[in-house]
Amino acid sequence: MEQQSHITLPKGSIEKTTTTLNIGPTHPATHGVFQNIMEVDGERVVSTEQTVGYIHRAFEKLAERRPLYQITPITDRLNYCSSPINNMGWHITCERFLKLELPKRVDYLRVIIMELSRISDHLICNSIVGVDTGAYTGFLYVMQYRELIYEIYEEVCGSRLTTNIGRIGGFERNFTNTAFTKLEKFLNEYPKVLKEFENLFARNRIFMDRTQGTGGISAERALNYGFTGPNLRAAGVDYDVRVQQPYSSYQDFDFKVPVGTTGDNYDRFLVRNAEMYESISIIKQAYQKIQNFKGAEAEVYHADVPEYYLPKKEDVYTKMEALIWHFKIIMGEIELPKGQIYSAVEGGNGELGFYLISDGGRTPFRLHFRRPCFIYYQAFEELIKGGMLSDAVVTMSSLNLIAGELDA
Amino acid sequence: MALSNDTIQNKLEEKFGDQVLNFSTASGILSFESPKELNLKVLQYLYEEPSLGFTFLTDLCGVNYPDNTGAELVVVYHLHNFSENIRLRYSVSTSIDETAVFTASKLFESANWMERETYDFFGVNFIGHPNLKRILNVDEMDYFPLRKQYPLEDQTRIDKDDEMFGRG
Hints:
The structure holds 2 protein chains of 2 kinds.
Chain A: E1 19-23, E2 35-41, E3 44-51, H1 59-63, H2 68-76, H3 83-98, H4 104-132, H5 137-157, H6 177-201, H7 205-211, H8 219-224, H9 229-234, H10 241-244, H11 265-292, H12 313-318, H13 320-330, E4 338-346, E5 351-359, E6 366-370, H14 372-376, H15 380-384, H16 389-398, H17 403-407
Antiparallel strand pairs in A: 1-2, 2-3, 4-5, 5-6
Helix pairs in contact in A: 2-3, 3-4, 4-5, 4-11, 4-16, 5-6, 6-11
Chain B: H1 5-16, E1 21-26, E2 29-34, H2 39-48, E3 56-64, E4 73-81, E5 86-94, E6 100-102, H3 111-122, E7 125-127
Parallel strand pairs in B: 2-5, 6-7
Antiparallel strand pairs in B: 1-2, 3-4, 4-5
């Protein structure tokens, strides 16, 4: 006898037992333009397919038409939560490629900027994990300090989010006293706030229950999936580009590389949190080193590379040679040497690599960005399979996915 | 014993003879090439040979050299050995008419999307890929935009009527 049912399906229709659920492209829970086509059984995730590319802007193609200094604003728009790291990463790639030597003071100033932006990146990511588990307070509270970081950027380069900070060979101008005053204020006040932020979450029963054991991955799988950055370290692999291949004089600093064990959302949170303390310590060391410079050395903010570093405006108006360099740089008439280079920095969410091929022209022949979150977002399905839908939301935010970087 | 570029080169030449070629070192990274049919064998040897241990695929991307007839498209693999902290660059080239290259996604999960990206922009057909379709561009696109035959618009052209956009 046929089973009694309230709903009569048309004859021959497939009796599907799961529900297809579209999350995104824009959804309050995704913090960016992400789409996931999920198959859910009740509240359990059976499978998911990530769709990416909604804000693809063809940066790699654009870069093939631009002289080196015009590519810096493109890198701003990759991981826009920590654009100074991207800018510096690009400058460092160019400097390595052109074999330029930089003064130590420039390196230390760069370290300050990069670590500030690492803090602002981790701050966003960790507080968003809080928002997704139902704790809005932390997010609003730490915004004050992100604002202070942005004010320091503003003091150094004039802009806040898409910074275009620094130039090939150094900085566009010296740090002002206001910048250093704001930095001191930050160093004095922020550690206490971070401690309070940590107290809100780290031993909070609700937060622990929501994040422990969800979205976990083993070290082997994480490596196979190409994880880098805090997400890899949370799985227990102590790989950090700053240590393995130091750039910008990171070898002069004393810091720890925090690692987790299970690679789950909770460990990712803790690793990022611990990294912020390390960043504060690095900034303090760098600031100390900068104060130790005396005399003319204490005013150096760029290397002497007339081919790539714009001359002073006064000189452009009064000196022939400066005027010529100004024109050659602005019009992009500097020929690059032939060759190729892969250079990486530790970005906010992993190893940010630049693969530059030059055929001797004025623009790169090919430029490829190794975007960490594009590579590790592949693992998302494996991370959330079999878990609750609400845990998938937390996993997504704790991976620190940035749509701008994902889609390039 | 610390792994050096010379050791890697010797090991590879010992195993593959003259099939691995064009060794060079640029900015400290050893680069070499091989015929595209060998790419999986080379990658697997680099992965599984305990003294080499290149188990991390940092990056995979395509490059288009329109003037190299018969080898217009190049697939570049950047590998990393974490414990020895050494990087390696390996590339295979293929003609633009017959773009089949074996997929590395069975060896590295991370290769999956990077190969899709390379397919999307260069049209490299990765044989054996589980889901080879466009990833960043729209599915309906009928060309491979990063190939050099599609130049960017000339920035100095004056035949455009921009009045509609307030730039006339």
